[in-house]
Amino acid sequence: MHKYCCDKIETSLGDKTIKIKYFPVFRQYVIKHKDNYASRTIQFCPWCGSKFPKSLAKEWSDELEKIGFDDLLDENIPDEFKNDSWWKNRKCYV
Ligand SMILES: [Zn+2]
Question: In angstroms, what is the span from residue 44 Cα to ligand 1's centroid?
């Protein structure tokens, strides 16, 4: 199984001159603005047109709240929530 929808997006994500980024922890694709701080979530691959999987940014904070983390910047959040393990470990998200 390919990690991404097409080779072009994979190449783009490795190319610093292209301002598209993927955040595995949120399963979220974004376009960065010039300043690199503001960004906008994108729903479709700009190269092949495939719809990206749904972003899990909200689910990430919901799951953390369920286990008692109100401060999402807390350093003690479980390791699985620092990468894509948390949603890969939960069948409802894959
Ligand atoms: Zn694609």
Answer: 8
Q: Long-range contacts: 8-12, Cβ < 8 Å, 24+?
A: 8/45, 8/47, 8/48, 9/45, 9/46, 9/47, 9/48, 12/47
Tell me the domain boundaries of the chain.
1-53, 56-94
CB of 64 closer than 8 Å to CB of 86:
no
Beta strand residue intervals within the chain, DSSP E: 20-23, 28-32, 39-41
* pLDDT tier at 3, thresholds 50, 70, 90: confident
| Residues having C-beta closer than 5 Å to ion ligand 1 | 5-6, 9, 45, 47-48, 50
- Judged against a pLDDT cut of 70, whether residue 28 lies above it is answered with yes
Please tell me the distance between residue 77's alpha carbon and the centre of ligand 1 in angstroms: 32
